[in-house]
Design goal:
Elements lengths: L1 E3 L8 E5 L2 E5 L31 E5 L2 E2 L4 E2 L9 E9 L4 E7 L12 E7 L16 E8 L14 E8 L16 E4 L9 E8 L2 E7 L1
Antiparallel strand pairs: 1-14, 2-7, 2-9, 3-8, 4-7, 5-6, 8-13, 9-10, 10-11, 11-12, 13-14
Protein name: VIP36-like protein isoform X2
Membrane topology: Single-pass type I membrane protein
GO biological process, one term: endoplasmic reticulum to Golgi vesicle-mediated transport
Length: about 210
């Protein structure tokens, strides 16, 4: 999967993620000793003695323990997020995400989740936990089709959207009109972790998924 953006809007933005993630140096590979930016990373044990996660704010129905972070329980109308508290000043970066999406249902697994790299942090809203008309980047895992007609893809669906604050995310169309690119990703109720890497380097945005 390959995305491209000619914008330099990512230079000084806040990073938010609704997942477990790490910011690493360029040329990063999975499970290596690459350099981590500690103030942008989450490592076990997540909770400190003060029952908080250093450099992170837990929001909504999200729950953090020493071994995992759960965004929501397997219940309807739940929202949870984890926001990084430190601005990002790197021109080039890579994020590695490890996640699981699971529940009792065989078909319905909520609306989805997203990685947000945006100007304004902790402004919750209708777009996978973030506000609409955001400024920045969203990498979205859409687990439910809201489109009434035929789709040219199945769900779950992984896509990217760049916004300067003027674009509306259309849930009824599953954001297809404003996405940069996307691909199907089978990641629900798997017995193993799913790994996603997002890299922004020299104004090029790329994504990789491993299950």
């Amino acid at each position: 999967m390959y995305f491209h953006s000619a914008s330099k809007m990512f230079k000084i933005l806040f990073t938010v993620i609704a997942l477990i993630w790490q910011v690493v140096a360029q040329e990063a590979q999975w499970n290596t000793e690459d350099f981590l930016k500690r103030h942008h990373s989450m490592v076990k044990p997540y909770l400190t003695s003060g029952l908080s996660i250093p450099y992170w704010d837990v929001h909504g129905f999200a729950l953090a323990s020493s071994n995992y972070v759960r965004l929501t329980a397997d219940l309807q109308s739940r929202y949870g997020a984890i926001w990084n508290t430190v601005p990002v000043y790197m021109n080039n970066w890579e994020v590695q995400i490890t996640l699981k999406i699971h529940g009792k249902g065989k078909e319905l697994f909520g609306d989805g989740m997203a990685f947000w790299y945006v100007r304004d942090r902790m402004e919750g809203g209708p777009v996978f936990g973030n506000k609409d008309f955001f400024s920045g980047l969203g990498v979205i895992i859409d687990t439910y089709s809201n489109h009434n007609g035929e789709h040219n893809h199945n769900h779950p669906y992984l896509s990217a959207m760049v916004n300067n604050g003027s674009l509306h995310y259309d849930h009824d169309m599953d954001g297809t009109h404003t996405q940069l690119a996307g691909c199907e990703c089978k990641l629900r109720n798997l017995n193993h972790d799913t790994h996603i890497a997002i890299r922004y380097e020299d104004e090029n945005l790329t994504g990789e998924r491993k299950t």
